[in-house]
Every structure is written in C-alpha cells, then in structure tokens.
Amino acid sequence: MGRKVKKEVKRLYFDYSLLFVTIFLAAFGIVMIYSTSSYTAQMNYGSSEYYFYKQLQYTLMGFVVMYIAYKIDYHVWKKLWKPILAIGVILMFALIPFGTTVNGAKRWIRFLGIGVQPADVVKVVVIIVTSVMICALGKNMRKFKYVLLVIFATGVTFAGLVFVISNNLSSAIIIFLIPCVMTFVAYPGYMIYGVLAGVSAVAGVFGYNILTQIAHTAESTGDFRFRRLLVWLNPENYASGTGYQTVQALYAIGSGGLFGKGLGKSLQKLGFIPESQNDMIFTIICEELGLFGAICLILLFILLIWRMMVIANNARDLYGSLLVIGVMSHIAIQVILNIAVVTNSLPNTGVILPFISYGGTSIIFLMAEIGLVLSVSRGIRLENV
C-alpha cells in the first residue's frame, strides 16, 4: 500500500484575540462613559443617555471603518502615501480659517455634522509616511543620521504643525514619539539610544529644576502652561483654582480602595471632576472599580499591545511590520501618558484614554488603526503539514 502524502495547506491568519480585546475595550468604554456622564448629561442636556448614545453611534461607525480597513490590502496605503501626506497637511492648515473653537481650543473642523480633529488624522498619516520612508531608505537606516532625518521629516514637522496651529501639546508629543519608536525598532544599533536615554535623564533632572524656577518666576504672567507646572508640583496649593481637577481626581483614585465603591456609585462624577467622561475617566474607573479594576484594564491594554507585537514579528514584509509598530506605539504612548497625567505623575496635557474616553474622531480613527493591523495580519500564513 502506498503511503499517504499529506498536502501542505496554507491558510490565512486572523488574530481573534486582538479583535476580541478591541471589542471588549470599546464596550467597556461605552459602559464607563454612561456611568461617568449620566449625571452631567441629565443636568446639561436633559437626558442621562446623551453621551452614551453618541459614543455608541461613533463606536459602531468605528467598527464599520475597521472592517473596511481590514478588507483593504495595506500595501494600497504605500502607493497612496503622497495624497495621504497632502490630506494631513491640508487638514491642519484648514483649522486656521475653518476651525471650530470648543472649550477655548480651536482643534476641530465640522464635517457632515461630525467634529473632526485633524490631529487624530495626522497620527495615522505619520504612521504611514514614516513606514514608507524607512522602507525607502533600506540599508541607509543603519546610519544614525538617516534615523534623525526620518524623525525630523515626520515627527518634528507634524508635531510642530499640530502644536503651532492647534496649540495641542499632548497630540504634538504623541506625534513626535511615534516615529521615535518606529525608528528605534528599525535602527540596528541600540547603544546610541542607551547613551541618548542617559543624556535625556540627566537633562531631565536639570530641566526639571530650571522649569520649576521659571514657573515660579512667571506665575504672575498668568501663562497657563507654567501654571500647569505649578499645579503638578503642588496641586494642594491650588485646590480651589487651577488645581481643583487634579486634587479631585487624586481623591477619586484614593477613595476607590481595592475593589471600588461599585459601578455607577462614584461621588466625584457628580460635578466634582469636570468633563469626567473625557481624559479623567480613569479616575472614575479607579473610584468605582478600585485598584483591581484599574489593574485589569491595564492588563487588557498590555494584551492588546502584545498581540500587535506578535503580528509585527510575523508580518509578511517590513512595511507591514512598521505599520503595526506605529499603531502599537501610538496606543501605548497614549495610555501611558493618560494614566501618568491622571495620577499626577506628569503635568496635565489633556490626553484621552484610548477606546475608553468619550470622543467621536478618536474612536473612529483608533478603529481604523486596528483595522490596518488586522489587514497586516491577513498576510501572515500558517502552514499545516
């Protein structure tokens, strides 16, 4: 009898773990937005479900965008990098004549009834353009001067545009750091990064002392950035003024204890923490679900990032791997900054928590990025013998 020969079967890979974690984070975000905003929504709009329904609508739109991004071959964006770059630049400059001012900041453009924040578009643009640049440079990325070229061409340029035009420091920091992480992965020599990290640490110590002195000297000028530094250093001294939100946020975190007061039972959301459904939502999570709930949420973000690392390591080509690394770095940086800000480990910069905080443009473009990652995962082939 002849031996049966098993045929080699190739099948496409799909990361269900990444999809399920994304769905859970988005669903959890909707629940927490209702919990944190029901009181203020009832007071301001006459309906406790106002923010809940709007976020639900944006999230469903986001899943549609994610599916579309998943079905499109990610190499298409490599061919269209010039129009994509142009769209990012045009949107930023469009803020000057067409921007809408919300809460004192001119960062939105109204489009089809939806407020679009160009900074969210620019984050995706930077990820795509940086990936294309690194692939185009090829072996030249072994030279550190080309690493600096990429960081300057994408990170510094777009971060500068966002900061100067929209006065959005938090988004500018994220946009600058994304190419830094991507080039760190692409550059083979890590020793120089170690040296730079050491120099940055020393400079940070001196910079901290200098900024502290400047902030105290310039307190009388009323500059809000210097006042943020002072609030960060001594929030209790400004508890009745600019430090009110920080103090109330810390109180919410501390009062939650190990397991929290229970879902929906927060006291700080009852007008004590302004706009608690936005960048301060993590403090309400700590108050209602306690340290245990906060750690579980952080672990979910770690799982999300780990799945992206798996996809990046097994991507079919360098371009796909860099796209995933860009998305991974964006989400990781934003999570770290948000948690650091709400715990007063960093000065307040207004960074929202991905998938959890309220925001239409944010959730839609985050879902688009997840769709991009899933599109890259489609190129991974599993071989069964």
Descriptive overview:
- The chain is mostly helical and 385 residues long.
- The protein is built from 13 helices and five strands.
- Strands 2-3-4 form a three-stranded antiparallel β-sheet. A two-stranded antiparallel sheet has the order 1-5.
- Helix 5 (118-137) packs antiparallel against helix 6 (144-166), helix 5 (118-137) packs parallel to helix 7 and helix 12 packs antiparallel against helix 13 (360-377).
- The radius of gyration is 22 Å and the shape is globular.
Short key terms for the protein model shown above:
mainly alpha, globular, 5 strands, 385 residues
Topology record:
Layout: E1 9-12, H1 16-45, H2 50-71, H3 75-79, H4 81-98, E2 100-102, E3 105-111, E4 114-116, H5 118-137, H6 144-166, H7 169-186, H8 191-217, H9 224-233, H10 244-255, H11 281-314, H12 318-342, H13 360-377, E5 381-384
Antiparallel strand pairs: 1-5, 2-3, 3-4
